[in-house]
Amino acid sequence: MADYISDIQDLDTQLDQLEGAISATTKVSAAFQAELAGMETSISAAGQQAGHLNKNLSSGLKSAFSDLVFEGAKLSDVLRNVAMSMIESTFNSSIAPLTDALGGALTAGLTGLFSGGLAFEKGGAFSQGRVMPFAKGGVVTAPTTFPMRGGTGLMGEAGPEAIMPLSRGADGALGVRTNGGGSVTVNMNITSPDVESFRRSQTQVAAGLNRAVQRGRRNF
Fold first, then answer.
1. DSSP characters for 79-140?
2. Are both 82 and 108 inside the same structural domain?
3. Which of 78, 95, 118 is the last residue of a domain?
4. Is residue 203 included in any domain, yes or no?
5. How many CA atoms lie within 13 A of 108 on its CB side?
6. For 96-137, how does the pLDDT look when each residue is reduced to its tens digit (9 = 90+)?
7. Residue 181 located in a structural domain
8. Segments of the chain scoring below 50 in pLDDT
9. Under 8 Å CB-to-CB from 68, ≥6 apart: which residues?
10. How many CA atoms lie within 13 A of 135 on its CB side?
11. Which domain of life, per UniProt (predicted)?
12. Same domain, yes or no, for 52 and 83?
């Protein structure tokens, strides 16, 4: 009888050990599944970043060589633009995860902070946590990130960039308003011995006037 009771106690102990082993195995399996899910997410994100990088590089190369073929740009300028495009695309892809996270947090914070009615219909920018008004335009002289829907934008990375507010003219067109530079005077000296010679020179006069107008447009 005593041996029978001892065997039952040993069996209970073994069952307890088996339950503990099963519980530990379940926890390890759950942790392993979580690690696999994290790896899949990382691999997917890396694939997306690689796709964006490839797309940006292809776009930069196409634009650079289009300038060479169709616009007669210098080869040295084209190669410089290609290098800058590759550097910019690689940089943007490498910092995208960080800027996306920071941009999302910044956007959420600013939405809560300024949801009371602070409007930016005339333009606005943020720098180091402070609102920088650009209602009348301005210049960004250093690389500056700003939140955008679904991501983060970068301006000023290749040099100073201007912010110019838009206005609608009397004809309804929307664009950058410029102040008139005053009237332009074009002097043309025409020398002709008689009326008939002057009539024959009308084509030359018209061509000269057209050249003056074209120069004025380019200078404008």
1. HHHHHHHHHHHHHHHHHHHHHHHHHHHHHHHHHHHHTTT---TT--EEETTEEE--TT-EEE
2. yes
3. 118
4. no
5. 5
6. 665 665 555 555 555 555 444 444 455 555 545 455 556 566
7. no
8. 114-120, 127, 129
9. 75, 78
10. 6
11. Bacteria
12. yes
| Predicted structure pTM score | 0.22
Tell me the Ramachandran region of residue 156: left when phi exceeds 0, alpha when psi lies from -120 to 50, beta otherwise: left
**Lookup: tokens for 5:** 């009771």
Question: pLDDT tens digits for 145-166?
Answer: 777 777 777 877 888 877 777 7
Phi, psi of 145 (to 5 degrees): -95, 150
Structure tokens at 102: 């920071």
Spatial distance between the Cα atoms of 7 and 27, rounded to a whole number of angstroms:
30
CB 49 within 8 A of CB 89: no
Domain that holds residue 144: 119-168
Shared domain check, 138 and 42: no
What is the rounded radius of gyration, in angstroms, for the C-alpha atoms of the chain? 35
Contact 192, 201 (CB under 8 A): yes
Residues 20 and 126 in one domain: no
Residues 21, 63 within the same domain:
yes
Give me the pLDDT at residue 116, please.
45
In this structure, the answer to whether residues 110 and 153 fall within a common structural domain is no
| pLDDT for the residue numbered 219 | 58
